[in-house]
Protein 1
Amino acid sequence: MILLRPDCLVFETANGENFPCPVQEVVIELIGDSARVLDEATIENASAAVLHYFRTELGKTSVTIGEFSLALEQALRCLGFSVHTASADLAAAAADKPGSHGADAAADLVRLAGE
């Protein structure tokens, strides 16, 4: 097992591949053209919030792209921005399945953003 840098998570793609990557790089890829509209500090803060949520609040170092996208949208929404990623749609559908913790995760992100 490798030791992850503090700014990284291991991302699982839809086809089951895993790759470690700094969260800020993934954020820029996921929000695409919206990255030009948002200032660098906003992207950094959203990246840091989502990283903190997964690593500290949930104790996870590995997440799916969909989970990360959904959390990123929530964090940006709490900062007053409406950014949409296609990956978040897939994660939202998965979160609505019985036994998932999607609603709990959304509530935790709102609380975390408020703090």
Note: Residues 40-57 form the longest helix (18 residues).
Protein 2
Amino acid sequence: MPYTLTLTAEDVQTIQFVGGRYGWSHSLRGMETGTNEISEADAWEIKDAITEDTFGGHSLFPMLDHRSDLASNLLDLLDSIV
């Protein structure tokens, strides 16, 4: 079952701005505006990259407003990966 992540133009711009600084943004680079289908293997790679950002007690999604729709969508994606 593929996973999906819907991104707005603003979300894509945010991901590009953060760039390769953090695992969460690096793993999402190349995704486009609209609904992106994510394979099982890619979903796990994204989850692992996001989790690595928290090593050392750091919060999820550095440089991202935790109240944003993008953060909420990413949390939903993480919760759906099983």
Note: The beta strands are 3-7, 34-38.
